């Protein structure tokens, strides 16, 4: 697991929290912020996954 995977997962988690708070408080802006954070986190995690796959491919 590399830093991009960890940071991406953390960002997704923060996004889920913001989305839930936005829904609970009926705040569409915070809900949208949470959605965006989740997408950014997923993208960062995907980059980390690609880096890991490339690293593993080099070992073979």
From TrEMBL:
Residues 1-17, 24-36, 46-60 have a biased composition (Basic and acidic residues). Residues 4-56 form the CsbD-like domain. Residues 1-60 are annotated as: Disordered. Coiled coil: none annotated. Belongs to the UPF0337 (CsbD) family. This is CsbD family protein. It comes from Paraburkholderia hospita.
């Amino acid at each position: 697991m590399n830093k991009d995977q960890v940071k991406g997962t953390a960002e997704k988690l923060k996004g889920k929290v913001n989305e839930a708070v936005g829904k609970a408080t009926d705040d569409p802006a915070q809900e949208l912020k949470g959605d965006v954070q989740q997408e950014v986190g997923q993208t960062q995690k995907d980059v980390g996954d690609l880096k890991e796959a490339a690293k593993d491919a080099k070992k073979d």
